[in-house]
Amino acid sequence: SQRVAVESRFGIIRRFESSLTVALSMEDLLTAIGTGIAAQGIGFCALVLFDSPNGALDWAKLMLVANENGIRILTPYGLRFRTMEVMPGGLPDELVTFVCEPLQFANEALGYLICSTDAPDRHLYAVLRDQVSAAMKRALLIEEERNREKALELEVRRRTSELSLSNRRLTEEISQRSRLERELLDISNNIMTRIGQDIHDDLCQDLAGISVLGATLGGSLKRLEPQPAPLIALAAKITGTASQTA
User: In terms of pTM, does the model score above 0.85?
Assistant: First the structure.
Protein backbone atom coordinates (compact mmCIF):
# COMPACT_ATOMS: atom_id res chain seq x y z
CA SER A 1 0.00 0.00 0.00
CA GLN A 2 2.81 2.37 0.85
CA ARG A 3 4.61 1.46 -2.39
CA VAL A 4 1.46 2.13 -4.41
CA ALA A 5 0.98 5.46 -2.66
CA VAL A 6 4.61 6.46 -3.36
CA GLU A 7 4.30 5.42 -7.02
CA SER A 8 1.09 7.39 -7.27
CA ARG A 9 2.77 10.49 -5.85
CA PHE A 10 5.72 10.09 -8.23
CA GLY A 11 3.28 9.73 -11.12
CA ILE A 12 1.58 12.97 -10.11
CA ILE A 13 4.97 14.69 -9.84
CA ARG A 14 6.01 13.43 -13.30
CA ARG A 15 2.75 14.66 -14.81
CA PHE A 16 3.26 17.98 -13.02
CA GLU A 17 6.77 18.28 -14.47
CA SER A 18 5.47 17.41 -17.95
CA SER A 19 2.74 20.05 -17.71
CA LEU A 20 5.38 22.65 -16.77
CA THR A 21 7.54 21.63 -19.72
CA VAL A 22 4.84 22.09 -22.36
CA ALA A 23 3.62 25.42 -20.92
CA LEU A 24 5.22 28.18 -23.01
CA SER A 25 3.38 31.32 -21.93
CA MET A 26 3.47 32.72 -18.39
CA GLU A 27 -0.30 32.36 -18.01
CA ASP A 28 -0.23 28.68 -19.08
CA LEU A 29 2.67 28.01 -16.73
CA LEU A 30 0.95 29.59 -13.72
CA THR A 31 -2.21 27.64 -14.48
CA ALA A 32 -0.20 24.40 -14.65
CA ILE A 33 1.54 25.23 -11.35
CA GLY A 34 -1.74 25.95 -9.55
CA THR A 35 -3.41 22.82 -10.95
CA GLY A 36 -0.39 20.58 -10.31
CA ILE A 37 0.13 21.71 -6.72
CA ALA A 38 -3.56 21.23 -5.98
CA ALA A 39 -3.26 17.69 -7.39
CA GLN A 40 -0.59 17.00 -4.72
CA GLY A 41 -3.24 17.55 -2.04
CA ILE A 42 -1.92 21.02 -1.11
CA GLY A 43 -4.87 23.28 -0.42
CA PHE A 44 -3.16 26.67 -0.73
CA CYS A 45 -0.27 28.00 -2.77
CA ALA A 46 0.92 31.41 -3.85
CA LEU A 47 3.72 32.27 -6.26
CA VAL A 48 5.63 35.55 -5.87
CA LEU A 49 8.29 37.01 -8.17
CA PHE A 50 10.73 39.71 -7.14
CA ASP A 51 10.18 43.04 -8.90
CA SER A 52 13.03 45.34 -7.88
CA PRO A 53 15.71 46.82 -10.15
CA ASN A 54 19.42 46.09 -9.77
CA GLY A 55 18.81 42.76 -8.07
CA ALA A 56 17.24 44.27 -4.95
CA LEU A 57 14.50 42.32 -3.16
CA ASP A 58 12.52 45.21 -1.68
CA TRP A 59 9.53 44.82 -4.00
CA ALA A 60 7.72 41.77 -5.34
CA LYS A 61 4.60 40.93 -7.32
CA LEU A 62 2.02 38.27 -6.60
CA MET A 63 1.43 36.19 -9.74
CA LEU A 64 -0.64 33.21 -8.55
CA VAL A 65 -3.02 32.30 -5.75
CA ALA A 66 -4.61 28.86 -5.64
CA ASN A 67 -6.96 27.73 -2.86
CA GLU A 68 -10.31 26.05 -2.38
CA ASN A 69 -11.95 28.92 -4.30
CA GLY A 70 -9.98 28.15 -7.45
CA ILE A 71 -6.90 29.44 -9.26
CA ARG A 72 -6.33 33.16 -9.67
CA ILE A 73 -3.77 34.20 -12.30
CA LEU A 74 -2.48 37.80 -12.09
CA THR A 75 -0.77 38.18 -15.45
CA PRO A 76 0.89 39.97 -17.05
CA TYR A 77 1.96 42.47 -14.38
CA GLY A 78 0.91 40.84 -11.11
CA LEU A 79 0.01 42.59 -7.86
CA ARG A 80 3.00 44.63 -6.64
CA PHE A 81 3.75 44.89 -2.91
CA ARG A 82 6.67 45.21 -0.49
CA THR A 83 8.49 41.93 0.00
CA MET A 84 8.51 42.32 3.80
CA GLU A 85 4.72 41.70 3.74
CA VAL A 86 5.34 38.19 2.29
CA MET A 87 1.99 38.60 0.48
CA PRO A 88 -0.08 41.72 -0.27
CA GLY A 89 -1.66 42.61 3.07
CA GLY A 90 0.09 39.70 4.80
CA LEU A 91 -0.65 36.00 4.89
CA PRO A 92 -4.30 34.81 5.00
CA ASP A 93 -5.67 34.23 8.48
CA GLU A 94 -6.56 30.60 7.73
CA LEU A 95 -2.93 29.83 6.83
CA VAL A 96 -1.77 28.94 10.35
CA THR A 97 1.35 27.05 9.20
CA PHE A 98 3.02 27.32 5.82
CA VAL A 99 6.11 26.43 3.82
CA CYS A 100 8.01 29.15 1.95
CA GLU A 101 10.38 27.76 -0.67
CA PRO A 102 12.77 30.15 -2.48
CA LEU A 103 12.58 30.08 -6.26
CA GLN A 104 16.14 30.34 -7.49
CA PHE A 105 17.95 29.54 -10.73
CA ALA A 106 21.74 29.26 -10.28
CA ASN A 107 22.62 32.43 -8.34
CA GLU A 108 19.57 34.39 -9.47
CA ALA A 109 16.76 34.87 -6.94
CA LEU A 110 13.46 34.68 -8.83
CA GLY A 111 10.93 34.77 -5.98
CA TYR A 112 9.33 32.29 -3.62
CA LEU A 113 6.54 29.75 -3.40
CA ILE A 114 4.20 29.70 -0.40
CA CYS A 115 2.26 26.49 0.29
CA SER A 116 0.10 25.15 3.05
CA THR A 117 1.48 22.20 5.05
CA ASP A 118 -1.00 19.62 3.73
CA ALA A 119 1.48 17.25 2.08
CA PRO A 120 2.61 14.39 4.35
CA ASP A 121 6.00 14.21 2.63
CA ARG A 122 8.04 17.33 3.44
CA HIS A 123 10.50 16.52 0.63
CA LEU A 124 7.71 17.20 -1.87
CA TYR A 125 8.07 20.95 -1.34
CA ALA A 126 11.75 20.86 -2.33
CA VAL A 127 10.84 18.92 -5.48
CA LEU A 128 8.13 21.45 -6.33
CA ARG A 129 10.59 24.28 -5.65
CA ASP A 130 13.16 22.92 -8.09
CA GLN A 131 10.65 22.14 -10.81
CA VAL A 132 8.87 25.49 -10.52
CA SER A 133 12.18 27.40 -10.42
CA ALA A 134 13.43 25.83 -13.67
CA ALA A 135 10.08 26.26 -15.41
CA MET A 136 9.71 29.84 -14.20
CA LYS A 137 13.20 30.78 -15.43
CA ARG A 138 12.42 29.29 -18.83
CA ALA A 139 9.12 31.19 -19.01
CA LEU A 140 10.81 34.46 -17.99
CA LEU A 141 13.44 34.01 -20.69
CA ILE A 142 10.75 33.29 -23.30
CA GLU A 143 8.75 36.29 -22.14
CA GLU A 144 11.87 38.48 -22.25
CA GLU A 145 12.64 37.30 -25.77
CA ARG A 146 9.05 37.99 -26.85
CA ASN A 147 9.20 41.46 -25.35
CA ARG A 148 12.48 42.04 -27.17
CA GLU A 149 10.88 40.88 -30.42
CA LYS A 150 7.90 43.15 -29.83
CA ALA A 151 10.19 46.08 -29.07
CA LEU A 152 12.17 45.31 -32.22
CA GLU A 153 8.97 45.05 -34.24
CA LEU A 154 7.77 48.39 -32.88
CA GLU A 155 11.16 49.92 -33.69
CA VAL A 156 11.00 48.51 -37.22
CA ARG A 157 7.48 49.91 -37.62
CA ARG A 158 8.61 53.31 -36.35
CA ARG A 159 11.64 53.34 -38.65
CA THR A 160 9.48 52.17 -41.56
CA SER A 161 6.97 54.93 -40.84
CA GLU A 162 9.75 57.50 -40.68
CA LEU A 163 11.24 56.16 -43.91
CA SER A 164 7.83 56.25 -45.61
CA LEU A 165 7.35 59.82 -44.44
CA SER A 166 10.82 60.76 -45.71
CA ASN A 167 10.13 59.06 -49.03
CA ARG A 168 6.81 60.87 -49.33
CA ARG A 169 8.48 64.20 -48.56
CA LEU A 170 11.26 63.41 -51.03
CA THR A 171 8.69 62.50 -53.69
CA GLU A 172 6.82 65.74 -53.04
CA GLU A 173 10.08 67.70 -53.21
CA ILE A 174 11.07 65.99 -56.49
CA SER A 175 7.62 66.71 -57.90
CA GLN A 176 7.85 70.33 -56.76
CA ARG A 177 11.32 70.68 -58.29
CA SER A 178 10.08 69.17 -61.55
CA ARG A 179 7.18 71.62 -61.56
CA LEU A 180 9.55 74.52 -60.88
CA GLU A 181 11.87 73.35 -63.66
CA ARG A 182 8.93 73.22 -66.08
CA GLU A 183 7.87 76.69 -64.97
CA LEU A 184 11.43 77.98 -65.44
CA LEU A 185 11.60 76.42 -68.91
CA ASP A 186 8.21 77.92 -69.81
CA ILE A 187 9.30 81.33 -68.53
CA SER A 188 12.60 81.07 -70.43
CA ASN A 189 10.82 80.02 -73.61
CA ASN A 190 8.31 82.84 -73.25
CA ILE A 191 11.11 85.35 -72.69
CA MET A 192 13.07 84.05 -75.68
CA THR A 193 9.91 84.10 -77.82
CA ARG A 194 9.12 87.67 -76.77
CA ILE A 195 12.71 88.77 -77.41
CA GLY A 196 12.64 87.09 -80.82
CA GLN A 197 9.37 88.77 -81.65
CA ASP A 198 10.72 92.14 -80.53
CA ILE A 199 13.86 91.69 -82.60
CA HIS A 200 11.90 90.53 -85.65
CA ASP A 201 9.10 93.06 -85.44
CA ASP A 202 11.03 96.12 -84.25
CA LEU A 203 14.79 95.90 -84.51
CA CYS A 204 14.92 94.05 -87.83
CA GLN A 205 12.42 96.48 -89.33
CA ASP A 206 14.49 99.41 -88.07
CA LEU A 207 17.66 97.92 -89.53
CA ALA A 208 15.89 97.29 -92.82
CA GLY A 209 14.69 100.90 -92.76
CA ILE A 210 18.25 102.12 -92.11
CA SER A 211 19.45 100.00 -95.04
CA VAL A 212 16.79 101.50 -97.30
CA LEU A 213 17.57 105.01 -96.11
CA GLY A 214 21.31 104.39 -96.74
CA ALA A 215 20.59 103.15 -100.24
CA THR A 216 18.38 106.17 -100.90
CA LEU A 217 21.06 108.50 -99.57
CA GLY A 218 23.66 106.84 -101.75
CA GLY A 219 21.45 107.24 -104.84
CA SER A 220 20.89 110.89 -104.05
CA LEU A 221 24.62 111.51 -103.58
CA LYS A 222 25.44 109.89 -106.93
CA ARG A 223 23.23 112.40 -108.71
CA LEU A 224 25.26 115.34 -107.41
CA GLU A 225 27.88 117.07 -109.54
CA PRO A 226 30.63 116.63 -108.72
CA GLN A 227 29.94 113.38 -106.87
CA PRO A 228 31.13 113.27 -103.22
CA ALA A 229 32.89 109.92 -103.34
CA PRO A 230 33.61 109.63 -99.57
CA LEU A 231 29.95 110.28 -98.69
CA ILE A 232 28.76 107.78 -101.31
CA ALA A 233 31.13 105.18 -99.88
CA LEU A 234 29.92 105.95 -96.34
CA ALA A 235 26.28 105.60 -97.42
CA ALA A 236 27.11 102.25 -99.05
CA LYS A 237 28.86 101.07 -95.85
CA ILE A 238 25.84 102.08 -93.76
CA THR A 239 23.55 100.20 -96.14
CA GLY A 240 25.69 97.05 -96.13
CA THR A 241 26.24 97.03 -92.37
CA ALA A 242 22.49 97.46 -91.67
CA SER A 243 21.61 94.65 -94.08
CA GLN A 244 24.24 92.33 -92.60
CA THR A 245 23.11 93.10 -89.04
CA ALA A 246 19.47 92.47 -89.94
Answer: no
